[in-house]
Amino acid sequence: MAVTLDDKLVVAISSRALFDFEEENALFESGDPAAYMKLQLERLDVPARPGIAYSLIKKLLAFNDDKMQRVEVVILSRNDPVSGMRVFRSGVANEIKLVRGVFTQGRSPFKYLRPLGAKLFLSANADDVREALAAGFPAARVLTESMLAGTNYPHEVRIAFDGDAVLFSDEAEQVFQARGLDAFQQHELSKALQPLREGPFKPFLAALHLLQQAGSTTPMRVRTALVTARSAPAHERAIRTLMSWNIRVDEAMFLGGLAKGEFLREFEPDFFFDDQTGHVDHAARHVPSGHVAAGITNTKH
Questions:
Q1: What pLDDT digit, counting tens, does each position of 134-171 carry?
Q2: Are residues 41 and 115 both part of a single domain?
Q3: Which residues pair with 288 in a beta bridge?
Q4: Of 201, 184, 188, which is closest to residue 293 (Cα–Cα)?
Q5: CA–CA distance from 208 to each of 23, 215, 224, 295 (Å)?
Q6: Is 2 part of any domain?
């Protein structure tokens, strides 16, 4: 029987999102890829430090046990295969079980998301993320300047999502951008009983929901939060949309435009996803954060 990943939550991640390769990447960005490869080879036995998405990945993999492999993490990297050896060795040193990887030596790797059946793609490369989103995959650019995740919840993978253009479509955001807050509130109130269309991260939220519902012989659990600039009365449509999907979130924060960072600091997520650069840049001062380059706020010129 052929090996398949169809029954697993597959996360594809770049080496820079998982490990701290910022010093090495600066050399690559300077236009000297040969020097970069040489440095990686020289450091083959020097494990890279954990990167911004390390806590998220380590906790997701902790849902696996000897009887059931529920989560698969695959390295999907622009690195060359030689540098890939250091990535796998860093995984061993940091107690991350990595068995699969694709290394494309400078070319965009996003096309390999489809055969992997990935439910999430995390990368520090903005172009790769945009291409993945355009192809229909949940994807986010990891802000490598983010704060690392806290350690207060070792048995919970904690993930926070923005709503519009992330979990939901940007239909309502388009109204807000075109006609302002009052029109947005009235639009959402009039359509409170009509579920929003799904956004790019609905498949990942659904996969997390299934992971939680499946149960586990490990102590790991999932805790999710909706963290949105919406406020009453626009909150109702967001809640009803989740209900129509038969998916629940554990916490919901309707902040009415307040800065999200301090609230996220208290929630202590392993990762936060938002489509607006202002929100995600502020959040990154407090928690691991990723930019979802979707919706009207990312297409305006």
A1: 999 999 999 999 999 999 999 999 999 999 999 999 98
A2: yes
A3: none
A4: 201
A5: 33, 11, 9, 23
A6: no
**Which of 85, 114, 142 is where one domain is finished?**
142
- For residues 225-262, b (16+ Cβ closer than 10 Å) or e, as one string? bbbbbbeeebbbbbbbbbeebebebeebbbeeeeebbe
For the chain, the domain total comes to 2
> Which pLDDT value is given to residue 80?
87
Task: Read off the DSSP letter of residue 165.
Answer: T
Q: How far apart are CA 77 and CA 105, in angstroms?
A: 8
Q: Indicate whether 148 belongs to any domain.
A: no
Q: What is the span of the domain harbouring residue 253?
A: 156-298
For residue 233, give the DSSP letter.
T
Q: Which residue among the candidates 162, 164, 170, 274 is catalytic per the annotation?
A: 162
Catalytic residue list contains 162: yes
My answer on whether 117 and 164 are in the same domain is: no
- What radius of gyration do the chain's Cα atoms show? 19
- CB of 9 closer than 8 Å to CB of 207: yes
